[in-house]
Amino acid sequence: KQEVTQIPAALSVPEGENLVLNCSFTDSAIYNLQWFRQDPGKGLTSLLLIQSSQREQTSGRLNASLDKSSGRSTLYIAASQPGDSATYLCAVSRYGGSQGNLIFGKGTKLSVKP
Amino acid sequence: NAGVTQTPKFQVLKTGQSMTLQCAQDMNHEYMSWYRQDPGMGLRLIHYSVGAGITDQGEVPNGYNVSRSTTEDFPLRLLSAAPSQTSVYFCASSYQGPPRGSPLHFGNGTRLTVT
User: Fold this and answer.
1) How many A×B Cβ pairs under 8 Å?
2) I want to staple A78 with a disulfide (CB 3.0 to 4.6 A). Which of A39, A61, B19, B71 is the partner?
3) CA B53 to chain centre
4) What is the residue-wise DSSP string for A18-79?
5) What is the pLDDT of residues A56-109, one digit of tens each?
6) pLDDT of A113 strictly over 70
7) Residue A76 and residue A62: Cα distance in Å, rounded?
8) How far apart are CA A40 and CA A42, in angstroms?
9) Taking a C-beta distance cutoff of 8 angstroms, is the pair B47, B56 a contact?
10) How would you classify residue A100: left for phi > 0, otherwise alpha for psi between -120 and 50, otherwise beta?
11) Alpha-carbon distance A65 to nearest alpha carbon in chain B (angstroms)
12) Measured between alpha carbons, how far is A13 from A88 in angstroms, rounded to an integer?
């Protein structure tokens, strides 16, 4: 059974710091991995989607990497800002099982202090 | 461009009542889905649809019904509400559903309390 883990559950950093969020998954047979952002009381916003054949994706100050063989992905945020404060979730799309299912991690709550 | 619209935003039900959570998208997405989000449990898939007239069960379908008569709409029906269905419900859509995957677009959620 695919399990997705995000550690730490919460992270607090000062403004301007570069930071890395971690996502690990137990079954390397995935199609792709997505990173999402969730603001309090809101839905999820897709940040980056990495196909299984790719190693990384970049969007602005965000860079996501994928290492399927080790079951890990990282989300790198450069020069963090208070507006980056949110919960970040990763989700994997797996082969087989229930079609249509993404398996989500429980998220890392990020707080960027001014 | 509205994206994914969910109504209502908040709802309180008594045990045994029924209701329908509405979801509409204006992006012409074939794939639509319903998730529930609970503290400590993360997001879990309830039902999904890969096109009009096609629906299937996800991880936690019991107590919920769906239908997909149009591409745009995907309502979720609670048949007889139970306190265990207290949760935040999210509708999501994408051009291509998992596993192939396109970015998933979420609505802002419906916070449901069953007393």
Assistant:
1) 80
2) A61
3) 16
4) -EEEEEEES---EEEEEEEEE-TTS-EEEEEEEETT-SEEEETTEEEEEETTTTEEEEEESS
5) 999 999 999 999 999 999 999 999 999 999 999 999 987 655 555 788 999 999
6) yes
7) 6
8) 5
9) yes
10) left
11) 16
12) 14
Question: What pLDDT score does B99 carry?
Answer: 65
**Given an 8 Å threshold on Cβ–Cβ distance, is A100 in contact with B104?**
no
Angle at B94 between CA A59 and CA A68, to 5 degrees: 55
Q: In terms of CA atoms, which chain A residue is nearest residue B51?
A: A100
Is the bond leading into B99 cis (omega within 30 degrees of zero)? yes
Give the dihedral sign, CA B9/B15/B17/B19.
Answer: positive
Write the pLDDT tens digit of every residue in B71-112: 999 999 999 999 999 999 999 999 877 667 688 899 999 999
To 10 degrees, the CA torsion angle through B77, B83, B84, B90?
50
